[in-house]
Amino acid sequence: xxxxxxxxxxxxxxxxxxxxxxxxxxxxxxxxxxxxxxxxxxxxxxxxxxxxxxxxxxxxxxxxxxxxxxxxxxxxxxxxxxxxxxxxxxxxxxxxxxxxxxxxxxxxxxxxxxxxxxxxxxxxxxxxxxxxxxxxxxxxxxxxxxxxxxxxxxxxxxxxxxxxxxxxxxxxxxxxxxxxxxxxxxxxxxxxxxxxxxxxxxxxxxxxxxxxxxxxxxxxxxxxxxxxxxxxxxxxxxxxxxxxxxxxxxxxxxxxxxxxxxxxxxxxxxxxxx
Length: 274
What we know:
The protein has helices spanning 21-37, 52-64, 87-97, 114-125, 148-157, 161-164, 182-187, 201-211, 241-251, 256-264, 267-270; strands at 5-16, 38-48, 73-79, 102-106, 110-111, 131-133, 138-144, 167-172, 177-181, 216-218, 223-226. The chain is of the alpha/beta class. It has a single domain (5-270), classed as Spore Coat Polysaccharide Biosynthesis Protein SpsA, Chain A, CATH 3.90.550.10. Strands 3-2-1-4-9-6-10 form a seven-stranded mixed β-sheet. It has a four-stranded mixed β-sheet with strand order 5-11-7-8, with helices on one face. β2 (38-48), α2 (52-64) and β3 (73-79) form a beta-alpha-beta unit. α1 packs across α2 and α1 (21-37) runs parallel beside α5 (148-157). The longest helix has 17 residues, at 21-37. The N and C termini lie far apart (44 Å). 40% of the residues are buried.
């Protein structure tokens, strides 16, 4: 077993709804990768009519991961028949659930070079940045057309060449993963719950925290994005898209004072400040 990299002051918060076989494979892949390579904390919260993670992912993970996979791992299931996944609410609940100084908003289809995790973690731990985007802005996204064989070979020895062999380079901006000083995340308004399902929340989050004056760093390296099927929860067919775009158009006109006033009036934040 490889020596694990110490990310003990961080909690990865991973909201999931497993809607297709490739999403199931992606969740298994990133969970196994994080558990096998890092000494860290993980919260996975699934919201659905039944727990696909518990029924299908957990048995596979227990088979392929060495050691105690569930140490420092918190799985939460919320039963819901709602067709759309309110990811922003779920993230906020996990931010409050976490008890570490660093929180990582982490998509269930993202993998970074191992050194990027440590650099981001240590930069926040040591006070260099409040927030770190652990990949570059520009042509830093590797879109991975994964198969079971590819991810199995990758996980076997954490050999990124297997991902590189089935990837193409694309643009990257603001999604996938962000390392936050937890208190900064809370003070800056956390996730905007006015967004529903697929939305420009990644752009809004970056704009807001930058405008509020927080110190944001970037690591000029790749992010590997495991591709997947897209339904209403992850594409423009989301029926809330018009209101989501209206929210973003409104917010991007705001200066620091406007943002502070706007977020101080958001009802959804009050439930976390009791």
